[in-house]
Write a structure and sequence with these properties.
Largest sheet: 5 strands, mixed
Number of helices: 4
Strand order of the largest sheet: 1-8-7-3-4
Oligomer: single chain
Helix content: 40-55%
Distance between the termini: 110 Å
Shape: rod-shaped
Structural class: alpha+beta
């Protein structure tokens, strides 16, 4: 019984290796960009794509004739078909030495076109995002309080500018490395809002406070001179 179980596990493992070996990968590409699909065959009179599948297995297109250039056959998958993030599968066939042969490979679409970040990096990014968001909201409330009192000074202005540029740095990091579309949209909104709440408005608050302080000093000097 144990021998049969071992043989069964070995057969499953063997076929999984064969299956993974049959499907090669073309690499990773950025979302919503063209993907150049290629196949090399030096002794084929034609190479066709039989199917291209989305990550959810639905078919994008089928029975496509690839364009020949030397020993390389090409087909450009338009960017309108690369909006879904995940693994795409391309299968086709050709006639090396007059004998029909099939092939398959995959490629991956993500937000950056680079390797996906590790779990630790993703976790650190999320923690950093939550901290920055907390400071972003807290500083806005803090700034409004000082704006009402008209004692908004250069240190307050520096805090607002600082948290905005931290947020903007996260936005750049997200676009260039993390590649999460939902996070990208969220950060884009906060960067836009922060232009007003942490750059424009604090600058106005600062100048109003400086003007009030200058006016108070002038009045104080004039009052002292009148005595």
């Amino acid at each position: 019984m144990k021998n049969k179980l071992f043989l069964f596990i070995f057969v499953i493992f063997f076929f999984s290796l064969v299956s993974s070996a049959d499907v090669e990968t073309l690499g990773r590409f950025k979302q919503n960009t063209d993907v150049e699909l290629t196949q090399i065959c030096s002794n084929c009179s034609y190479v066709n794509i039989s199917s291209i599948n989305y990550p959810n297995r639905s078919v994008i297109t089928s029975e496509v004739v690839m364009t020949k250039s030397g020993v390389t056959y090409n087909y450009t998958l338009d960017s309108t078909y690369t909006d879904s993030i995940g693994r795409y599968i391309v299968c086709g066939y050709g006639d090396p030495d007059g004998t029909i042969d099939t092939w398959c490979y995959d490629f991956y679409i993500n937000g950056t076109g680079r390797e996906d970040p590790s779990g630790i990096v993703s976790a650190l990014f999320i923690v950093s995002f939550l901290i920055v968001m907390f400071l972003f909201v807290w500083l806005f409330v803090y700034s409004m309080g000082h704006a009402i009192k008209k004692d908004f000074d250069i240190i307050d202005l520096g805090f607002d500018f600082g948290i905005y540029f931290m947020l903007f740095s996260l936005f750049i990091l997200q676009q260039q490395y993390m590649g999460n579309p939902m996070m990208d949209s969220l950060l884009n909104v906060f960067v836009y809002v922060g232009t007003f709440t942490h750059i424009l408005f604090p600058s106005i608050f600062f100048f109003i406070s400086m003007f009030r302080a200058s006016t108070d000093r002038t009045q104080s000097i004039m009052s002292g001179g009148m005595r």
